[in-house]
Amino acid sequence: MGNFHLQLTLSASGEITNKSAEAKGFGSGKPRTIEHYGDRDPTKDSPVYITFNPEYRDKNGNPSPQYKEYGADKKFWEELYRGEFHWYSPVPREDATAAERDMFQMLENRMRKYKGAYLVDEDYSWNLKKGRSTPGQQDYLGDNTGTTLITTGPYRGKHYEFRYLGLTPDGIAVENPYFPPDIPPKDSNNWHPERLAWIKEPWDVGLTTDTKYDHDPKKVEWIRAYFLPANPNFRIPGKTDDESAKYWASVFSVQSNPEKSTGIATGFHQKGNHVYYLTFTMKPPAKPNLRMIEFAITDKETGQIIGKVTRNPDNNKDLTVKRENLSQFVTVGKTYVMTAKVKNMIVPELAKHDTTHTPITLDQMYAFDETSYQYGKWDIEKEDSVLPALPMAKIAYGGIATFDKQNGSVTTWEFTIPPVVNKEIVFGTRIPLGFYEKGDNINTEDDEATIRFKIEPEDIGVSSQAQLLDSNGNVTVDVVPFKTYGLRFTVNKAFGKKEVGDPRDPSNPFATVEVEVSDKKTIKTLKGVAKEVLTPEGKRVAIDVPNAITPSTSIIEATWQIAKLHRDNGQSTDFSNDGPYTQTWASEINISVKDFIVKPQAIMRPKEKEAGKENLTFQFDVMNANAEKQTKDIPYVIRSQGREVYKGSVSVPANKYITVTASVPNVPLFFGEVPFEVEVNPVPRKWFEFKKDGSNPYEDNISYNAVHVYQNQKPNAKCEIVHPQNNWQTTYSLYEWHGHQESYESCHTGKDGNEHCRTVYYCVTDWDNSWEETISHYERYEIKNVFFRSKLTDDTQGGWVDILKQPGKVKAGYGFEIKFVVQYTTNTYSASPKPWRSGCSGKTVSPGWSSVQTPQSITVTMPYTDQSGQPVVYNLTPTSTSGSWDNKMEVYEMPMRNVFNLKNTREIFVNEGAKDANYTIQIDTFPFYGSFDKPPTTDILCDQKHVTISIKGANSDDLKTHIIQ
To answer: pLDDT averaged over consecutive 10-residue blocks of the chain (965 residues)?
Structure first.
């Protein structure tokens, strides 16, 4: 391992990159840091804290990067990390905030220096790993095993490991011994670091900055006494320990004083063109240590221990803490008694050391709720307030001091949990700092004991049902606009013993509900507060909120929940019964109209006459729905195409339908559908209306109907001579042949001079024959069926009946449906010979056949007349057809029309006053020639049928009482 010079370049992951060295002897000569000793002796003690020196300059005349980063006031405090490693930490000794405990505040942890294994996220930081190693080893103990609790950022709450946790007294970053290796060895059990190509004086080639310990005259002795015993493989074969120590002192940079704590040494080695660093720990020095070996909490009332913290009293190196929570909960207002034991630990190789600091006391601390999660923060902190059971001037080496008293009027060490505690409490005690200052207790990692308890849960809940109160405080379910209403809620003590409500204690408010109340137009936010104390468990109190709302609608919606202040102060811990709950009270105030009928529904004018005017009767039902049970005089108006036809008013009792009839003379009409509408409570509205579903309350104030005005038609079809069928004979000439196919080659010379050939195919007849056939044909065009249906046929005959065979029966005042079936049939196609062709064979037939198109029109003459006395006529076209052209079925129905504004129908309604009698309907098909394949004839196809409608009785069973106006 000779001394050599290495040219450094930017290198691969986990390697060292070049940096400028700040060696001793260069620059201003001023130290990098200022050491602050307080009351300590600088000749034998360590500084209390260090700051960076503003007068320091490197060889280039620049201040240190740390001074640029921190300034002259940032204090780095002495720390014996985990009772083993001495350095100066940026974390204050007491009352450190989460931000102050964030080790990213160290400049070195924010530099992208080395990239290696186990990183949390290489894009986040190269100096934060998921877990830790055993100091001096190249192992990895697993994720979330780090020694630092992350207090800020995305990994808050994790136990990770930073590359740097502190500085040497002269401001050099100390390599954290718990930080895992960047490039782990393949086999940590067969790892021989002593065989690596170590670089001598690495501070002279820019790999690191030498520390004050590297220039201490004791450095070689430290390597011999502390480094080699902890790392025996570094003893050089054939060399004495002094010679080995002298060599390794030129290789390793010492980063902590091994006489004060476990020493740390860092060296650099070369592998190929790359350079790596390794950190080793030394044999720990023997230093006095006081340990909190037991802290117990007892319920004063029962005498039972509810929690205990213990540590190993025999092995000084074992820092394991054991916590036992024998009870998960403590109770506000109860008193608890504490005891603690402190041992002056037996430390190997340490001369007997009794404590010298006085007085012999402990500190006691208590943290509540949110404070209990803030490191180093306490709501109550009493230093030097806990006294030993027996007066003592020292704790002898190996001895144990028991503490169970405190200063004050109550000598027993006890604490009563105050009412301000809502959710959690931490009981704590620690060995005072004075023992450390006196050198009696160098390791402070095992000085403190804490136990966390949850406060016995308290809970209040609110019922999911509320009550609506009228202005007199009576419970109601009706909502009347512009009247004032209150609300009532019920809160119960679900569990717990703490009273809810104390007028002398602001931290204990009376049960409160938060309320939002709305009439769907405006929202009010209110609070309801109980007037009596809520306790014990199971008790209920009613909370009234008077004058909660004066709605402008007939709907009230309330949403309520236990007030947030009860969740914040621990009075409500089970949020499942806190709400929010919502309840709606609503009453309909609605005027509506339905069943609007105009009579007559259909008017038939004579041919060539105007639509004119007609006396019409309007009938409709009006509803007055309201919770006030108020009879109202409701105006209405009848219109046709925006023109007012009639207006009036009617007195309607609450919550009942009233039928209104208004007869209006000489109403102008036109042909076609004449629309009418009736509107109740029209604009400007006389009465306020509201629907509880939030829909438009005036939407049902209008109803529509129409009068159908027809002009009588001239008959399209008139069958003067009934002749539904033609018969004839046709003689067909037939020729049939059978043959086969032959071929030959046909060649010719083309324009290009080449011969071109093709195969020509032709038929040769082998047999043929000619003959005649005479076939009898017919065609028939007739009214096949007339189907009829009424309520009477539905009730007595099962629905549709064919009234070509029997009369159709209907009651006066009812309607009927009628449809006509016309059929055309012929055998001109089905009975005629059929030609065919296949290859060189076939048959021809002459003459051929042609299809027939029927007229698709009939005329229906009704048994009633228009205003001039002419029969009413309907010229109909098919509504459906079926079958092929030679067997076609056509169905004809009456025109579709709207009846009473209730439905579209083809029904014909019989007047209520129609006399009992038989009435005849005539049906005529349109005359047409029929098939053109028959011999010429004057016999035109035509059919006429007469059917009977029998009117029986009146519809008096459907009559209603109504108002005539």
So the answer is: 28 34 46 91 88 92 93 92 88 84 91 82 91 88 92 91 92 91 82 91 90 92 93 93 94 91 92 89 90 96 95 92 89 92 92 94 95 86 94 95 87 90 93 91 90 90 95 91 93 87 87 94 94 84 95 91 89 90 91 91 78 90 87 94 94 89 93 93 90 86 90 80 94 90 84 86 88 95 96 90 93 91 96 92 87 90 82 91 95 81 77 85 91 87 94 51 26
Question: What residue has token string 């300059």?
Answer: 57
CA–CA separation, 54 and 73 (whole Å): 10
Residue 829 tokens read as 């196609």
For tokens 């209040």, what's the residue? 460
Where do we find the tokens 């007012």?
644
- How far, in Å, CA of 281 to CA of 137, rounded? 9
The DSSP result for 807-866, as a single string, is: -EEE-TT-EEEEEEEEEEEE-TTTSS---EEETTEEEEEES----------EEEEEEEE-
Residue type, 223: I
How many secondary structure helices (H) and strands (E) does the chain include? Answer: 7, 59
CA angle 802-804-807, nearest 5°? 80
Rg (C-alpha) for the chain, rounded Å, is 56
Q: Over the range 530-564, which residues count as b (16 or more CB within 10 Å of their CB) and which as e?
A: beebbbeeeeebebbbeebbebebbbbbbbbbbbe
Prediction pTM value: 0.49
- Counted residue by residue, the chain has a size of 965
Strands of 917-925's sheet, edge to edge? 808-810, 944-951, 917-925, 858-865, 871-876
